[in-house]
């Protein structure tokens, strides 16, 4: 059974997340304190950590760094639960090592989709790395960096390839422009958010049957994009 640890000091949120995850078949353990949470990470070795930032004891960003620097826990995926604004900047700016973050308040449906997406990702050093991402007639090979649509090879730029891979890895999950920028362009330098829109447009020209009526990469107004297959 997949074990998820929630470290969060808002009681109502813990209760809601626990109910949702338990109903979806996950085993859930919780802590409302940073130091105790870190102990649980070490003793329980959960499959996923949901981590609040402002916590009594030890804050979430410190926990994240400690987990990433410890060989016995560094592979455990982490989703940060954050407040809007400056906390998001901290996660992105400090290269905290989180796998994903979700901004409060969030819907439980979106939350569950994020959890599933992170758990689906191949973990370094665990099992055979997944080489191919396949969705309907689209096939992407991560090692050869080739993309085929109905067995016809597509010519994609490096960034288009990385963007498509990120979208396909997170099928049915809404990815914000910020998250796409961080994942595809990296945390290191500033890129205009419209860069994402431009690359999505180019990508649609190549993978959509009718780029003016996209059915694969869907625009989610005011948020970002969702890959639907
Ligand atoms: Ca908190």
What tags apply to this protein structure?
229 residues, alpha/beta, Rossmann fold, Arc Repressor Mutant, subunit A, 2 domains, 5-stranded parallel sheet, 4-stranded antiparallel sheet, 8 helices
Give the topology.
Blueprint: E1 3-7, H1 11-23, E2 27-31, H2 34-44, E3 48-52, H3 60-68, E4 78-82, H4 86-93, E5 100-103, H5 108-120, E6 132-135, E7 138-141, E8 146-149, E9 152-154, H6 158-169, E10 174-176, H7 177-185, H8 194-207, E11 217-220, E12 224-227
Parallel strand pairs: 1-2, 1-3, 3-4, 4-5
Antiparallel strand pairs: 6-7, 7-8, 8-9, 10-12, 11-12
Helix pairs in contact: 6-7, 6-8
Bound molecules: calcium ion.
Calcium ion is lined by residues 9-10, 52, 54-55.
3D architecture notes:
The structure is a single chain. This protein has helices spanning 11-23, 34-44, 60-68, 86-93, 108-120, 158-169, 177-185, 194-207, and strands spanning 3-7, 27-31, 48-52, 78-82, 100-103, 132-135, 138-141, 146-149, 152-154, 174-176, 217-220, 224-227. It is elongated and about 55 Å long. The chain is of the alpha/beta class and 229 residues long. The chain folds into 2 domains: 3-120, Rossmann fold (3-Layer(aba) Sandwich); 132-227, Arc Repressor Mutant, subunit A. Helices cover 39% and strands 22% of the residues. Helix 6 (158-169) packs across helix 7 and helix 6 (158-169) crosses helix 8 (194-207). The chain is built from 8 helices and 12 strands. A 5-stranded parallel β-sheet has the order 2-1-3-4-5, sandwiched between helices. It has a 4-stranded antiparallel β-sheet with strand order 6-7-8-9, covered by helices on one side. A 3-stranded antiparallel β-sheet has the order 10-12-11. Residues 9-10, 52, 54-55 line the site of calcium ion (CA).
